[in-house]
Amino acid sequence: MPHTAFTSSTVFSSGYTPGYAKLNKRGGAGGWSPLDSDHYQWLQVDLGSRKQVSAIATQGRYSSSDWMTRYRLLYSDTGRNWKPYHQDGNIWAFSGNSNSESVVRHDLQQGIVARFLRFVPLDWSEEGRIGLRIEVYGCSYWADIINFDGQGVISYRFKVKKMKIIKDVIALRFKTSESEGVILHGEGQQGDYITLELRKAKLLLQINLGSNQYGSILGHTSVTTGSLLDDNHWHSVVIERYRRNVNFTLDRHMQHFRTNGEFDHLDLDYELSFGGMPYSGKPVGGGRKNFKGCMESINYNGDNITDLARRKKLDTSSFRNLTFSCVETHTFPVFFNATSFLQLPGRASHNTLSVGFQFRTWNSNGLLLFSNLDDGTLEISLDDGKIVVHINVWTATRNNRVDLSSGSGLNDGQWHAVRLIAKENFAILTIDGDELSAVRSTSPLTITTGGTYHLGGYFLQTLSPPSQHSFQGCMQAILVDDQPADLHAVEKGTAGAFENVSLDMCAIIDRCMPNHCEHGGRCRQTWESFSCTCDGRGYTGATCHTSIYEPSCEAYKHLGRSSDTYWIDPDGSGPLSPFKVNCNMTEDKVWTTVMNNLPPKTAVSGSSREKRTVLQVNYSASMDQVTAITTSAEYCEQQIAYSCQKSRLLNTPDGTPYTWWVGRGSEKHFYWGGSGPGIQKCACGIDRNCTDPKYDCNCDADLPQWRDDSGLLVYKEHLPVSQVAVGDTSRPGSLAKLTVGPLRCQGDSNYWNAASFTTPSSYLHFATFQGETSADISFYFKTSAPYGVFLENLGNTDFIRLELKSPQVVSFSFDVGNGPVELTVHSATPLNDDQWHRVMAERNVKEAVLQLDQTYRSSQLAPAQGHTRLELFSQLYVGAAGGQRGFLGCIRALRMNAITLDLEERAKVTPGVKPGCQGHCTSFGMYCQNGGKCVEKYNGYLCDCTDTAYNGPFCTKDVGGFFEAGTLVKYNFIPEAVAGDSRDTKIPMHQVTQREVNLTKEELSFSFSTSSAPAILMYVSSKSQDYLAVVLRQNGSMQVQYNLGGLKEPFAVDVDQRNLANGQPHSISVSRINRSITIQLDHYPPVSYTLPDASDTQFNLVKTLFLGKVYEIGSIDPVRIERYNTPGFIGCLSQVQFNGIAPLKSALRIAGKLVESNCGASPLTIPPMSAATDPWHLDNTDAEFPFNEERVIPDGVNRDSAIIGGIIAVVIFTILCTLVFLIRYMFRHKGTYHTNEAKGSGESAGESMDTAIIGTDNPETIDESKKEWFI
């Protein structure tokens, strides 16, 4: 390169001229140095013509202490209107040299095409001054250029009249200073079209491959990309379309989308026009401007449009003057930062003030112009996106003030024009040349200009300072007192003044394009940064990357949640949005249910094989969302039922079925519920019990009676059912009803996907982690080791690592090119406690976050400027880092950027690593409440509630029953052996030691609600005279009675004198240890009592526990039974527990008369509840006992038995008189039983020691053929 190709801002002396600034050259003083080392210096090189530049290199001045340590690169085609080099969304600052001899080379991530390059030092050697030698690497560049004047259009005529195009490739480069203009357009008579245009300096692609006349297919598709494209710099566009798939690329940023509608071909007529709308075409929308600027390298499906135009092979007749070189504009932009100002001279002592300029910014506030008038001040500022003008004029008698305001949202990054004219008693403010909306003032005003104007900032002391002091943005087309500002003179220092201003450059960046806010988050920006608004999207974080919902119902259960409707997000930070499902947490499984909109037993008519009726099944989630559930589920099922009347279903195994269903992937399936893939049968065909053995479905028998074929579809790869095509309901008498149940899936294999690392050197390896600009990692771990690396992935210099650094510290470290960054969280308790802990780490262009157990959190903001892309090359290692500090323990549910890594599958073939992990109860056992025991499973755990008074997945569901008059629950502590009773039933006898039935302590508790008194709530009998009773007396007060012997009367405790039979729930707990008794009622403090010294402390030979009513053969207290046992307890009992036994729960496990209800444990707000109003109450006339088919009338009157008994009584009255009196005496109390006690007890004892017996009394004489109802 000749010396004349190098120029600079200033030169230190003749030996330091820019011509010596060549890499490794020693001529002159060994390089270039400016006169002053400050931020206004630059070195410029003219490459002679446009070149494609791929790399640059710098070196300090030879054998000196002069070099630059950081610099910016500007480039231009003309030596004017400079553009700074961008990388990673920022104006890039290159690292320079650390000495005078070493060469630092940078390959440009974004290659540039330019003729002029300018190096601008930002920092330099502390020991010397700026010194520089440079080299530029690249290759030649040539392209045909066409200048569009805003009038001319190039028409590319097709070889045939109508084109049916299935594939398009369109490429071009353009530059313009206009924000609007059509770049290309084509259309067809059928309504197809393609249009590429600038709209508000963004690139808009509109394409329609076809719509139909009914409006059911709408093909219009619109996609926007880019921003600030009116910067008069080159931009590259590529559109690639194959059928409905489109890649839309602007300046190497590609968007992929699919066009709307169902058509694949683009049907165009006659021509495709470049630069505007064709004159013959029908306009798609009015008011569209033609493109004004330059285009080069226009290619359409292999044809070089610019070359064809140059050779006059295309129609260019609309051009007034077609030129093949770019006509440059003469704008001179000025770039301001927060410390900048530009001072321009104007006319002094003039009675008319006239200023104008264009500006663009992202900030909503800023000082645009300030001037000290001869007798006042003028301020033009941006206030909340509006232009505000304040004119203050002081006179000897008063202060005149004029305020004008206009516009809104002017901080949108677009160029906006401001024009202010003020003179005597008149001022007018115009925005964007809109005279109709100009703001005027006719207030008294006398203007005398001061002659000096400050733009973009004012930092001097003044009596009336401006409301704002600085501006961040660009200005151009500046007019002062109706004269264009001579910015060239300002640049040379011959007029005006400036500070920290970049001349002939607008370094505006759209930080929201491309949009780093994910999942629909709204991007808002200022000049220096952007922020994301994630409200209502279901995501959180600086870039709306992380889902706020759990991935599955399984995860909610392990947070201690119960059955309910939940939002889930199966792919976390992936593209699927959250959706609602029903989660049913049972004792041992977690079911996820997705509902559909097909009503049960939907009638189908008028269908045939030739014209099937297709029923669409739509779900409460999209098909992709449902697929995410089925993919991770361990098991799925869906009920499908076909009720038919002379309507065939499948008919034959060989022929095409009359009816089929469509599942996932739009695949037809010819099997029915209860069968499997490839087996064209129904459930009855599998079980061989169809109505007609010749057919494999009940409906295929073609009978006139209603038949049904139903069953479960369980092949989850085919689910859910999306369509059912019915084909045999068109014949006379043919009817069919279809039911498709909800999709139910159980388990989450991703959540429990785990691996156990057994040696420090063991690890799993996976493909390289792809998380360039946004990365999230989450997993669970448990260990007893004090340290270990969870995972690591390396690049050349970049890396990412998660590590347990010490027993209480987790570390997240990475490097994206700005140097290593480490985040740590410190736990208050040791993490090597062999319990599960959750780690979540996220890194994006805004910040990095590390979170532990949703309790401890650490974050660090990303640098405002610097590298943002994480570039990794090695494999991802899980469990170790090159064999050092290997992890010992378990890792599960490892998810990286929405993908769950299959640790189990990889562990099966990796030495030192085992699939799965045991020991879940150490972490989740706390969720098993009320004495429930945690039981380990391979995938998770379950709560065993057997020995509690509760049910449910966490032993928190109250177990209660509704007692009618006479209903009782009897629980035998020891089997009752009755001789001569076991002819039909073998009764296993359990050996019970004396220690087990003689008690010195009891723990009992229960809840109840009733409106009736008196009543026996609980009674524990024995084979001796001992007993324990909890009763409600006549007035509704509660009493606890202990009779352990040694006293003349039982020891009675009046728990409360209030009426507890008030319909409200109450709870009671009684605890006895020897003589000490503690009783607590509801939420009142416990009260202690002591048995008298004369009382025995041993509860001897405990036999039976009764709830609701006592019916006992043996030693009982007849007085108290008489007093409290009639008519029996009516109401609810729940949470009944006695010394670790749950008698009521045992009774409810067997179907029978007792109706399950939790009304005894409801909040203290429910009204009194009777049998007629209990929501859980079943009509007793429909309730049957499983061991006897006879029905029981609830009011206790068996009318047939009464009539027969009456007739017999009249005929033989005199003979049986004595017997009748005896019977009436025995059965005068309601609730008595005439029963074979021993046989029922023996049958129950044969099942278990924990035997519960439920019964309902009958006050009438019961025939001997009837049995007591034992459950």
From TrEMBL:
Residues 1236-1258 are annotated as: Disordered. Residues 145-326, 331-506, 753-917, 976-1159 form the Laminin G domain. One of its GO terms (cellular component) is membrane. Keywords: Cell adhesion, Cell junction, Disulfide bond, EGF-like domain, Membrane, Phosphoprotein, Repeat, Signal, Transmembrane, Transmembrane helix. Pfam families: F5_F8_type_C, Laminin_G_2. Residues 508-545, 918-956 form the EGF-like domain. Belongs to the neurexin family. This is Contactin associated protein 2. It comes from Monopterus albus (Swamp eel).
